[in-house]
Amino acid sequence: MEEIEGMRLVHAVVSVSSEILILLHSHYPDRASLADITRSMSTRSPGSVRNRLAEMRTEKLVVGDGRLGYRLTHAGHTAAVDEIRRLQTAALAA
C-alpha cells in the first residue's frame, strides 16, 4: 500500500474484492467515499468496483452506499486481515 497525494494504491496483484478489502482496511474504522475508492482503483473498471461493492454489502463484508461511503464490517475487517496476512506470507516465501 502506498499513498500519493491522497490516493491510496494497492500494489499487490489481487482480485477486485481483495483490493477493496485492503483499501478499506487502510481507512478502517472510517468510511471511504465511492469517489476515493474508484480513484484509488483507477486501473479497474468503475462499474466492476461498484458491482463488487454491492456484492460485498450483500455478503455483509461492507456497509454503506455511494452517498455515505463504505466501511468494513467486523467480518470484512477479518477478511481484510486474512488477505493481508496471506500476501505477507507469500512475499516472505518468495
CATH topology: Arc Repressor Mutant, subunit A
**Structural class determined from secondary elements:** alpha+beta
Principal-axis shape: globular
SS strand fraction: 5-15%
* Quaternary state of the chains: single chain
Percent helix among the residues? Answer: 55-70%
Largest sheet: 2 strands, antiparallel
SSE layout and pairing:
Elements (H helix, E strand, L loop, with lengths): L1 E3 L2 E3 L6 H12 L6 H7 L5 H13 L3 E4 L3 E4 L1 H20 L1
Antiparallel strand pairs: 1-2, 3-4
Helix pairs in contact: 1-4
Descriptive labels:
single chain; 94 residues; alpha+beta; Arc Repressor Mutant, subunit A; two-stranded antiparallel sheet; two-stranded antiparallel ribbon; 4 strands
How is this structure best described in words?
This protein is an alpha+beta fold and 94 residues long. It has one domain (2-93): Winged helix-like DNA-binding domain superfamily/Winged helix DNA-binding domain (Arc Repressor Mutant, subunit A, Orthogonal Bundle), CATH 1.10.10.10. Helices cover 55% and strands 15% of the residues. The chain has helices at 16-27, 34-40, 46-58, 74-93, and strands at 2-4, 7-9, 62-65, 69-72. The strands form two sheets. Strands 1-2 form a two-stranded antiparallel sheet. A two-stranded antiparallel sheet has the order 3-4. The longest helix has 20 residues, at 74-93.
